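To make the argument concrete, we let one protein speak, a sequence paired with a row of structure tokens, as a model reads it:
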Amino acid sequence: MVPCLRQSPALRPAAQHDAEHLVVADQRSAPDPPVAAYEAVSRLDLDGFRANPTATVLRNADFFTWNMRTVGMGAERVGEALPRLRLTRGRQPGPTVAILGGVHGDELEGVLAARRVLAALDPEGLRGSVRVAAPAHPAAWASVTRASPVDDLNLARVFPGSPEGRPTERVAAYLTDRLIAGADLLIDLHSAGEGFDMPLLAGYHAGEGPRCERAAEAARAFGAPFLWQHPDLSPGRSLSAAADLGVPALYVEGHGGGQVRSADLDCYVDGVLRVLHHLGMIEEAPAPAAPSTTVRGDGDTDGGVEADVDGYLVTATEVGRLVRAGERLGSILDEEGCTVADVRSPQDGVVMLVRRRARVSAGDTLAIVAERVDA
């Protein structure tokens, strides 16, 4: 049993195997019908997971792209690979939840958490189905990069994609059609990756109507330390593709940085279980550690506080910190180590993102500050 999970009729010991845990094989074109390509897969070795989570997941996942990488196949083959879709179908009817992990290849937490959730769910006590693509972008995952090494596209900017488009656009189209469409909820598990730092949060589109209301309820149920409301949806995201299909959606971010923190991973897993419990799919789930702090604003990492000049960023704040308008978040130094620009908060609020890499160019995102709405 994974230490952070409580025993439940829907959570089972690791040693069991069950044909209701299914996986869709990697293919150059989507299977038709989808269920015809599902096959039984064995569960993770959770004892090994505790000792070495990353190695255990990669060893057990049997990902097409990872195997190709280790036997030396070319990058163009990796770029053409579609993600595996894994499914746990409960014995009883209920909602369908779609989970993405590893949309960006340098974000480890979502892949580990998604597979840990699948390893814990027991079809006997599960009501409904859980669909998972983790990693969602095989080419980026194999190269440990945010974008594809083949076409240099960011999967999180090209949804809903195109079946006839470039490799990353085909991945987006496949995920939109086979994972997101027909789901009752989408959970997209991200993290700040290697380029940024972010507090552990759940975000959603805080618009009007029942879709947004259901997304808000699920995001609150997730129980992350921060809850980020977005008044608008940026195009090209998995959440915008879900919105076009009428599917409520939330996403999760964590500290990232190429490091997986135990507390973060536990919160990802427990948060997903809390959402499944909220939807009536499992009998119980771990309680959140504390109430969430709610903030509001644009969460687009392509924007925010930007560098005015080239140089070296020296930070003077931390994510999750309350700041005042005009407060210094950092400075940009030149080649001689002299300050050429101060980086200041544009408003009162909470620091939700800080750039990790010190070398910056004019226009690079340095930080994002969101308004606190429950102060």
User: Anything to note?
Assistant: Confidence is low (pLDDT under 50) at residues 1-9, 13-20, 24-76. Residues 21-296 form a domain with the Aminopeptidase fold (CATH 3.40.630.10). Residues 193 and 256 are 5 Å apart (CA to CA). Residues 262-278 form the longest helix (17 residues).
